[in-house]
Amino acid sequence: MSLIIIGTVAFDAIETPFGKTDKIVGGAATYASLAASYFYNKVKIVAVVGDDFHKEDIDAFTEHGIDTEGLQIKEGEKSFFWSGKYHNDMNSRDTLATELNVLADFDPIIPENYQDCEYLMLGNLTPIVQRTVIERLKNRPKLIVLDTMNFWMDIMMDDLLETLKLVDVLTINDEEARQLSGEYSLVKAAKKILTMGPKYLIIKKGEHGALLFHEDKIFSAPALPLAEVFDPTGAGDTFAGGFIGYMAKVGTINFNNMKNAIIFGSALASFCVEKFGTEKILNLTEEEVADRIQEFVKLSAFSIEA
Amino acid sequence: MSLIIIGTVAFDAIETPFGKTDKIVGGAATYASLAASYFYNKVKIVAVVGDDFHKEDIDAFTEHGIDTEGLQIKEGEKSFFWSGKYHNDMNSRDTLATELNVLADFDPIIPENYQDCEYLMLGNLTPIVQRTVIERLKNRPKLIVLDTMNFWMDIMMDDLLETLKLVDVLTINDEEARQLSGEYSLVKAAKKILTMGPKYLIIKKGEHGALLFHEDKIFSAPALPLAEVFDPTGAGDTFAGGFIGYMAKVGTINFNNMKNAIIFGSALASFCVEKFGTEKILNLTEEEVADRIQEFVKLSAFSIEA
């Protein structure tokens, strides 16, 4: 039994109003697997890097108990590289460089040891690669979560719709939900999207929290208001990783557990943005995570007598 | 003991993607007093209208038990008129006409019968008129709530800052909180604003809910996701009226009661947007309100074991 996370493992160079980094390790699978590792100890990644990715970069995964057998290292090639600059509001950014490199022809090979997969997180990648992973698993996982973005809706909507039919949970932001459904109201958008395959829809609203839709039920999760957002990179992936890591831990798929999973994912994401890149989520203590969860509880609790 | 609500009583002509209205009764004091009347039965308004405001328009207030002795009717003059058109996203609008009319030289006269005021809602008006009302009350109310907008920050910031020193609760939206404080982070903005006079700050975020700040505490209230927002006009005033109406009902000023008051205000606002103008909030049953409150409870409840 394991949790497989597929996505990018990459180098990022990030500039925010608070400073800038050289190339640091990033990528959806990096953030998501680190986050998931706080709740579940059988996390395995499927990704591809070049030979510029060094042993010490891989150590960060193994120190968190993350299985890297599915991390392909392509000799003579370079890792995916992204560079971006955030504006003062931290909500918008300019992409300065995107070098696909090894990602251009990524073939997601699933090691035999990974065939015990019960939980599958399909990080943001082409919908075709995401679908290939599902097809290569001998048994259908108990829970498949898919993250995607507007980019794939723009250029590969048909492929995305095909892949969506195969998943249980979709995580997208509010604009993407509107684009995917053609509906402005998120309630109407969710209703449509829940006919496309996913039985659960999570709409990520960044500083405004997240919404979970399932059948006729809605859960609204708060975001923790922060004095300083240092670097938003990876927050969405950290959220998704925390979410599925918690689901893998509790093992029962239902609406109530998903509500909690969203709070755990949000808590991890709130740490992620406090420092550059993965710095903060590399070294959290159990106590720090537990305290942050309690902050979420306090933040949204109220008690009205019926 | 009473709750005084001061603000505009006006005519609005509204166009939304769903249709348009002729001149209908609107204005901040109208929405706020109707909302407050669901929770408290000693609501009194201070406002001014022209002689185009007819007896049947006033009946809507009296039917809700709202005291209109403080509603001045200026013979030979016209009521404040606003006309606007909402865009398809319902979050932005164009103002088509603003005719101040009687509002241009509004002198807020407080009837002697109003001097028992314990709760005061200062709806969006010039900060000078808002301050005048406070000065004309012989005893300082137990709770003063002030609503304002960016317009007054643009043209009368000094007067606004003077008035702010006198109030307990400020309600503004997120952009206004940023403008007033000069801080982008709402946590930092709140910290600054809470040194300006108000001990409580409510940041209204529309479809994203509301935040309450007090000392080092934060409460995040959800908004009810709606399939259709028919007309957003008056939602903020309805929220504020529901908020102070509930506070007047419970009578004890503290953070926990304010959390509930925000939920009650949000519930009333969620009704307001379902029809044009005041139509929906004119005729709510106790059961409808109670059911809506339970929807808010379900929407945000989760239970994580420590």
Automatic annotation (TrEMBL), chains A, B:
PANTHER family: RIBOKINASE (PTHR10584:SF166), SUGAR KINASE (PTHR10584). This is Sugar kinase. It comes from the Bacteria. GO terms for cellular component: cytosol. Pfam families: PfkB. GO terms for molecular function: kinase activity. It comes from Pedobacter steynii. Keywords: Kinase, Transferase. SUPFAM superfamilies: Ribokinase-like. The lineage of its organism: Bacteria, Pseudomonadati, Bacteroidota, Sphingobacteriia, Sphingobacteriales. Residues 20-279 form the Carbohydrate kinase PfkB domain.
